[in-house]
């Protein structure tokens, strides 16, 4: 089986309720997060001349809510020397605490920066897709918490049918063939502008 997330890039307001709901549910401290909301922006505008005011040209800003993508070809599992980081039979990728030696290889290999070393336990930690809730037939907390219903989850084959037009990468994410992420994004018009002109992460300190 496989598991993935859907994200509506046009709908997301960047409120970070998903991120906070996850932190609350998983009891994460201020320095740890399983889901992050990236603010991405760019573009240029004409300088005003005479009595004119500034005229926006192709200025854009959008948000991207990102957790682990439970990838089709997970870089994290390939480098783990103990088999702690693994994909289970539900398609969820997560580190087995009993096997993890805290070497940090998975944190370096993941191009989405999903895993991190929990400094209290000295072990890898990351989004596990809320596997305990899934087992009870409940939605992941982040999906349930989003006030504008920008997130969805489930079998990737069903996600692409429910959300036609979804792609697997927009800026600033790596190309999809890096790990074949099970992340399906409905791009906003702003993402198309970014693809042409490039941009920058505006909240790097925060994520
Ligand atoms: S997003 Fe990173 S941690 Fe998650 S499965 Fe993919 S490579 Fe592994
Ligand atoms: S930190 Fe743990 S899960 Fe990550 S590569 Fe090392 S042993 Fe594997
Ligand atoms: S699926 Fe669960 S653990 Fe993963 S980001 Fe969402 S709330 Fe956090």
TrEMBL record:
PROSITE patterns: 4FE4S_FER_1, 4FE4S_FER_2. One of its GO terms (molecular function) is metal ion binding. Keywords: 4Fe-4S, Electron transport, Iron, Iron-sulfur, Metal-binding, Repeat, Transport. Gene3D superfamilies: 3.30.70.20. InterPro entries: 4Fe4S_Fe-S-bd, 4Fe4S_Fe_S_CS, ET_IronSulfur_Cluster-Binding. The keyword Cell cycle does not apply. PANTHER family: ANAEROBIC DIMETHYL SULFOXIDE REDUCTASE CHAIN B-RELATED, PROTEIN NRFC. This is 4Fe-4S dicluster domain-containing protein. It comes from Gordonibacter massiliensis (ex Traore et al. 2017).
């Amino acid at each position: 089986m496989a598991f993935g997330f859907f994200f509506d890039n046009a709908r997301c307001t960047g409120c970070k309720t998903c991120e906070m709901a996850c932190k609350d549910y998983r009891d994460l401290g201020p320095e740890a997060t399983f889901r992050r909301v990236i603010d991405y922006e760019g573009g240029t505008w004409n300088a005003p001349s005479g009595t004119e005011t500034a005229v926006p040209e192709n200025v854009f800003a959008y948000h991207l809510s990102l957790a682990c993508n439970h990838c089709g070809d997970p870089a994290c599992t390939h480098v783990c020397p103990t088999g702690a980081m693994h994909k289970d039979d539900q398609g969820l990728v997560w580190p087995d605490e009993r096997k993890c030696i805290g070497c940090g290889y998975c944190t370096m290999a993941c191009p989405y920066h999903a895993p991190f070393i929990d400094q209290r336990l000295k072990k890898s930690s990351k989004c596990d897709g809320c596997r305990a809730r899934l087992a009870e037939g409940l939605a992941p907390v982040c999906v349930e918490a989003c006030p504008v219903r920008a997130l969805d989850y489930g079998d990737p084959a069903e996600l692409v049918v429910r959300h036609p037009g979804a792609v697997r990468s927009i800026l600033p994410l790596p190309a999809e063939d890096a790990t074949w992420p099970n992340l399906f994004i409905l791009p906003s018009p702003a993402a198309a502008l970014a693809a042409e002109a490039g941009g920058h992460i505006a909240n790097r300190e925060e994520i």
